[in-house]
Write a sequence for this structure.
């Protein structure tokens, strides 16, 4: 869904989710408080839960999550919320278990610039711009303070700076992150102090038992006032009020029933979500490939017959799970199947003897493999971003037959596919993520051309040795000659990616032109018309881009708009995404117009204090990764601060009642970041 | 079983294993070729398969494996072997998956001194001294050469130097390690060259399919002669001959039937193996603790109701699995149980609310927890050797009630138990490993005193930050100021262990005296009487140690004999184990004599070339870890080489047909060792 770059799709899917949630609630099978979305940026390719997120780019995440909450909650200020969504994990959570660093005790060290620029945008969108009902504080600590016990995060930023102060908005802890404040964070001397620190900081609800077990003791010790407890309860009961919990049949959602679950519309949407996200990375012209009933197809690989595997990390019970093998069989062709080799953790060659047998007989090969939850999952980060030797061996053996050879790279994170990209005998490479219940059909339809691929990579595909250049624990984004960091994400990575963020080929070609000439803008003029409370939201310009399908195949086209140029603090990012929109079903020769709404915030950059500043300088707006069109413009005048970032408190090593353990425990300090050359 | 330090026990257990194996073979359910034992030294506490091995000390492993093969094969030169044992993994295999280093592609860099001194002794014992039927080459490469393709390892050392040349002795590959030669080791240009390299080096049998798939091509290309293939086949068929495969009912083992499986003797032995290995790490006098039917016991922890968990990494179907909870219930006491918290990967506090409820009611607490196969397993190394915060929190909460509090630390590897050792409210700490089908009973019997603990730690219990001081990939044993390594194993570790190798308390006390006075020996005199083919096997002296049980409780006593002193090449190890024996059932006030047979090899040390040398100098023999007795002696004269180690060939970067990839692939080279400060 991240690869689709289609916000309307996200709202549509989220609306189905919240509709089905109401049906389950009406049936007595579920509550109304949902711990979704995971909206932490997918910063490091090893992150096991990166698969749950839309990708690595903060603008992309913000736009996506706005559309998602719209569907989950039923608009941004509904009389009755469909459900309460929960933006998680606040904040700087993107490490599970890596080289002795565990999410439960990891202390993320992030400066204000990186914090505001990279880690905060999706949460700002949730809280400030989307009226999300709940925010979940995370397991990790941030700059020495466990997030669930951090008044700077939960009060100063979340509630005060972002105005997230509706009475029904509440913070929940991640499961047992209150316990983690006591240990392994060792942030307080006692368990009573740990629950007090969380409650006073503004964590209203505890997933776990520490509040139940230890709040009574803390209260008896006079560590907090009854009004503090009342506040947490008022927030939670107010949320029930806004859900219509007390209003009986006056709530229209009470009519949603089992008939509204697994509807034809929902099934079509599941297919569409899979199809829109499939991303074509390489194609020598073999695709689209007609599969006729007189052909013999060999479908091979640890994902070839994937069913539950297609659902990824968190999942419901699907009405069906159409594997790639199943979908191949529906084409009417003769299909041979071999699972070899068995995934990331399994090198066994037991059934490799079948490979030459089926290879001789087949007219074309489809290899479906890659990652799955045995190597990327909640609680489990990857240690390698390379394909296994066994997988590459089978791919190469099949490719050696010189027949059409299509590789589908699966899983949420990226693998270094350079051995496949560089193998001239591999005809095509597609990335399919975790495509869900109809994933096999979407993949096969993409091969045959029934679906034209138009997805884009939402994360950078790094070379395999990237993981040896930067430890997961390094939270910085910018390249750093001292630490040897080559930088993170397409914005800052100084190396050459295997496939870049936003990469995605089509079965046709597109041209684009921008309906706007190059010119100069005065910052003071721009500010004069800016009446928004949050000045970054003031409009700059809607850039209209005319896109033409100059090939012969119908296709969607994702219009990605990147900004580059010399403005604001150095170093400058390579480029940054400021707008995107997906144009649908463009027939051969047709032209559509993408309307890209840019705000002052789109142009602004973040200074070292985390302030959002509109800077004079040169700007260039580029359409697509290999630009199809470009618009240069200049901003003149003095810099203007659009948003003044609240500064973190000075370290309170001796002054806080709760701050005993210092910056993590001694053990935490001793576990080195690891992995740097 | 490693902690029991009881070679007779090992032979007895192995005899049951081979008896039951024959019953299964006669029943048509199993073959006669068994891929056991894993006898690589447990060098790094993180190693996921360390649990399969007897421990970290090479003498201990050698003595243990000699006893084991005796039982598995039915003596050292039987007319008919009971089964073929397989010493694995040859050699220097002790890493699964750590920080981007995978066993399938890891290149172990080991110099000749460490190789002969540490990694080779158990294999020398298997091949040279125990007539093992088979040896398995490993996944890793050693100094640039995949072990299954290494003629230096498989021909020069294994067959020529150790005289492992009986016609029925063969080498098998680890599963798909032949494929790994091609990729990810990238050691050969083609698949045909990979299978040829393995066959010619002396790998007779391939677990996997690469031989079947690619030997025909290699033969057609003229890469090897038919006689080479014949040699591999002759070895395997000869093994069948020695197993009596062709001799029908003339083989006495043909009479073994299902009645010989799961006998009362086997069940008693399973109990004995568990009981003998249980190791008492801490005791404030609470243990032994009578449990009466009018008591209430709370048994808590992720291992409290362990069943399959007790079996570890590889296992058969047990006739029963008596959990600690089950065993506690058999005492007649009222037993409360709570699983909290749920193991290494599970921090949830969901059922913690039960803790104060049962704690109020109980007269004593038994906490059973630690590691399991969710964090240490084949394919999975640990990244932390600390208890989790959740486990320590529950232990501390229970200890806070001031009632008898017994902690059982479970799992194959060690955890830093200093928070438990240092908590004055924890009465006792036991280590129970993976105790098998009757493990719960053995643990409870040890608490009540029905079994007197006499196990000893077979591995060092390091502080938690040890894992940040040395990467798993560092194969060196000695401390190194350049790399920052604090050294490995009790022989070389320069830090202070939490509990040292060999540590183990009793319910009684022992004194010891050595029946031998201090004196000086002439090396030339010693050599004059040495007529053995392998001179390290020549007797030096049998040291008789009188051990007295000076307490009031019957108990076994493990007599450990360490050697220290200034002789041979610097640096000197802290000490080294040269003999051990277990004295059984010593009643209060009784004396038993331990006969410790020392050889010239016991005294010798290894020089930088890997030669085994008897050096002049000062020696001290110490009984036990905190020495109960000591004998000093001196060797005079010139050093004598007892065993001249075959030197490795010079790197053949350009001369070998097969050596294409250099020392591992480029990717392997780029994955840094990681984890050093």
């Amino acid at each position: 869904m991240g690869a689709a770059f289609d916000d309307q799709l996200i709202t549509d899917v989220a609306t189905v989710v919240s509709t089905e949630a109401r049906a389950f609630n009406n049936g007595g099978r579920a509550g109304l408080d949902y711990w979704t979305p995971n909206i932490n940026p997918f910063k490091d390719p090893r992150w096991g839960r990166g698969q749950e997120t839309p990708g690595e780019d903060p603008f992309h995440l913000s736009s996506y999550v706005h559309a998602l909450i719209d569907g989950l909650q039923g608009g941004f200020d509904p009389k009755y919320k469909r459900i309460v969504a929960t933006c998680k994990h606040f904040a700087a959570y993107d490490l599970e278990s890596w080289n002795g660093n565990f999410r439960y005790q990891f202390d993320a060290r992030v400066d204000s610039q990186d914090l505001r620029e990279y880690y905060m945008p999706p949460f700002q969108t949730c809280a400030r711009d989307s009226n999300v009902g709940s925010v979940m504080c995370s397991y990790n600590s941030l700059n020495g303070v466990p997030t669930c016990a951090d008044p700077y995060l939960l009060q100063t930023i979340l509630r005060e700076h972002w105005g997230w102060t509706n009475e029904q908005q509440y913070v929940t802890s991640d499961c047992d992150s209150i316990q983690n404040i006591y240990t392994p964070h060792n942030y307080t001397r006692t368990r009573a102090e740990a629950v007090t620190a969380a409650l006073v900081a503004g964590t209203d609800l505890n997933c776990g038992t520490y509040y139940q077990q230890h709040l009574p003791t803390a209260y008896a010790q006079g560590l907090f006032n009854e009004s503090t407890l009342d506040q947490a309860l008022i927030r939670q009961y107010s949320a029930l009020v806004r859900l219509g919990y007390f209003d009986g049949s006056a709530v229209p959602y009470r009519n949603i029933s089992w008939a509204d679950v697994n509807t034809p519309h929902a099934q079509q949407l599941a297919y569409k979500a899979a199809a829109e996200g499939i991303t074509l990375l390489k194609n020598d012209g073999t695709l689209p490939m007609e599969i006729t009933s007189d052909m013999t197809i060999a479908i091979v690989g640890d994902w070839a017959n994937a069913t539950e595997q297609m659902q990824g990390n968190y999942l419901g019970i699907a009405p069906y799970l159409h594997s790639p093998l199943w979908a191949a069989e529906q084409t009417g062709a003769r299909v041979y199947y071999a699972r070899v080799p068995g995934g990331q953790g399994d090198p066994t060659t037991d059934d490799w003897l079948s490979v030459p047998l089926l290879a001789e007989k087949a007219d074309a090969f489809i290899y479906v493999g890659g990652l799955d939850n045995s190597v990327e999952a909640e609680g489990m980060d990857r240690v390698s971003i390379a394909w296994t030797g066994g997988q590459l061996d089978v791919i190469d053996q099949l490719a050696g037959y010189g027949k059409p050879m299509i590789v589908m790279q699966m899983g949420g994170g990226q693998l270094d596919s350079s051995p496949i990209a560089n193998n001239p005998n591999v005809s095509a490479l597609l990335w399919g993520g975790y495509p869900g219940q109809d994933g096999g059909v979407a993949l096969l339809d993409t091969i045959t051309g029934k679906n034209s691929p138009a997805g884009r990579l939402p994360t950078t595909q790094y070379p395999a040795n990237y993981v040896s250049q930067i430890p997961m624990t390094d939270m910085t984004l910018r390249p750093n000659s001292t630490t040897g960091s080559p930088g993170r994400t397409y914005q800052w990575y100084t190396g050459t990616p295997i496939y870049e963020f936003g990469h995605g080929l089509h079965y046709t070609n597109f041209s684009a032109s921008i309906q706007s000439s190059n010119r100069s803008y005065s910052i003071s003029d721009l500010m004069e018309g800016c009446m928004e409370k949050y000045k970054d939201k003031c409009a700059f310009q809607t850039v209209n881009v005319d896109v033409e399908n100059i090939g012969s195949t119908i296709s969607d086209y994702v219009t990605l708009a990147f900004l580059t140029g010399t403005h604001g603090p150095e170093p400058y990012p390579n480029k940054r995404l400021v707008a995107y929109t997906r144009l649908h079903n463009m027939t051969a020769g047709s032209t559509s117009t993408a309307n890209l709404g840019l705000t002052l915030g789109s142009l602004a950059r973040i200074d070292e204090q985390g302030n959002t500043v509109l800077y004079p300088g040169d700007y260039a707006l580029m359409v697509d990764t290999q630009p199809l069109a470009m618009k240069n413009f200049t901003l003149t005048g003095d810099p203007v601060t659009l948003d003044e970032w609240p500064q973190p408190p000075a370290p309170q090593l001796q002054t806080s009642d709760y701050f005993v353990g210092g910056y993590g425990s001694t053990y935490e300090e001793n576990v080195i970041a690891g992995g740097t050359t």
